Amino acid sequence: MGTRDPFKASEVVSRRGGAAKQPLSRDIIVAAALDLLTQEGLDGLSLRKVAAALDTGAASLYAYVEDLQELHALLLDRALAGVDTSRNPQQGWRARLETLLESYYRALSRSPGLAQLAMSTIAAGPNALRIIEALLGLLGEAGVEQATAAWAVDLITLYVTAIAAEQSQRRRQPDPLGTITQVVGAVSAEEYPRIHALRHHLLSGSPVDRFTWSLEVLVKGIVQTPRPDAPAGKAVASRKRMTPARNRSSSKKL
Amino acid sequence: MGTRDPFKASEVVSRRGGAAKQPLSRDIIVAAALDLLTQEGLDGLSLRKVAAALDTGAASLYAYVEDLQELHALLLDRALAGVDTSRNPQQGWRARLETLLESYYRALSRSPGLAQLAMSTIAAGPNALRIIEALLGLLGEAGVEQATAAWAVDLITLYVTAIAAEQSQRRRQPDPLGTITQVVGAVSAEEYPRIHALRHHLLSGSPVDRFTWSLEVLVKGIVQTPRPDAPAGKAVASRKRMTPARNRSSSKKL
DNA sequence: ACCTGAACACCGTTCAAGT
DNA sequence: ACCTGAACACCGTTCAAGT
């Protein structure tokens, strides 16, 4: 194990002969970790490797970071820095919502394993808060009651994270035997008639088409589904019978 | 500790003085792993510990299981065995859908870490297929066009898994500093006015209430949102009356 | 065939000791 | 104060050797 590996992979390497090590800092550590995550995926990310990339030992990182878990959280928030929440007043709430969530989705998909990491890390950094704030604003514009919007934000972000995680990892495995494709394609028509009949539909559609469709599902559902305990104030009077938002025809049974 | 006898935690322990080791088998390995997962969570699950519980070395497991990943997949499917897909013809599709998904959700929530595991494991075992098959049937009854139902199943299962994972891990941390509760509760009113204003709403609601609400959102959205490339006109336009999913006589292209 | 101890190449985290 | 080598207690996986 050569300790002096010229394997730095960071900006400041050495000026002349000597090894001019940059001073450690939270920021540099997080940057190196994100680099590593991007290049090697979640499994390739370790404190030891981050330390090695910074030409030090793993123990040194503990002066700046509590934990591997904390590093994960910092990593996630830094990755979310790229999400654009600026308002474009030209567009309606719906278009802006879609733009924002696509940006969110793309940020999580940028590095393999980032979305996976997001599924096991609570996103509560400044960038996550900025995104939530923006979402609340958009849902408000959409006329969603406040208490409902609070839950809706959770639902939406959870879903975007989940779908990014699912797809990031579908990409990890080119086509081993266990893949959905193989299983669904070979399913027995007697045992699972519906899966068999729909096997092509189940696998069809580009990620972006599915994403767009799912978003539409969520938005439509959210706009029409008040929280059970929502104030009966202006929009909804849902106490026992759930009546669709505003005044739709109340015929919808089943 | 000290829940069971010595250390075995499985049926066949020792008959007489000697240590009568049960023969290994896939089934026994998976059972031991599920035990371990239930008792110690995902982080406490390892091939070495499973082997130790079965009084052997980790290497021995490789005769029955390809991989840790494969063990995960087997584990997940075994956990899904408890999901009830039997039809109760007394109830409408909606009630049955809710029952099924609650059962699914509960199965994933039974062991800590199981839902997390599910997020990084493709569920394609017989029990997963059985659940998908049932979901397709229910969506068909709901009048959802077939191609749309195929995508909807993905959306629904992904969501149930994700919310189970989120909550299973919210339970892991009682209340360290980074928790959502702490962050959201202390957010600055100037920087994040909307989060601040809604901070109580954001945290309110029991898991089951949120789950039920989310499900309603999804179902309403799905019923009303055909796939972009779905056959137009024919069946479910937007919210017309549901057809009793009976007359399959008309030409069912695709 | 089935099983296994030992080894290999890794982990996160702690700590006494260095500067 | 900051940094570190070494150690501790773990991992998944492989393999030659045992029965």
Set down the secondary structure blueprint.
The structure is a homodimer of 254-residue chains.
Chain A: H1 26-40, H2 47-53, H3 58-61, H4 68-80, H5 93-110, H6 114-119, H7 126-141, H8 146-170, H9 180-185, H10 193-197, H11 199-203, H12 207-224
Helix pairs in contact in A: 1-2, 1-4, 5-7, 5-8, 7-8, 8-12
Chain A binds a DNA duplex (19 and 19 nucleotides) through residues 24, 46-48, 56-60, 62-63, 67-68.
Q: Can you tell me about this structure?
A:
Two copies of one chain form a homodimer. Chain A is mainly alpha-helical and 254 residues long. Chain A has two domains: 26-79, Arc Repressor Mutant, subunit A, CATH 1.10.10.60; 83-224, Orthogonal Bundle (Tetracycline Repressor, domain 2), CATH 1.10.357. Chain A is 54% helix and 0% strand. Chain A has twelve helices and no strands. The termini of chain A are far apart. Chains A and B meet through α7, α8, α9, α10 and α12 of A and α7, α8, α9, α10 and α12 of B. The structure holds a DNA duplex (19 and 19 nucleotides).
Strand percentage of chain A, roughly?
Answer: under 5%
Number of domains of chain A: 2
Which bin fits the share of residues in helices of chain A?
A: 40-55%
Give start-end ranges of low-pLDDT stretches of chain A.
Answer: 1-20, 233-254
Count of β-strands of chain A: 0
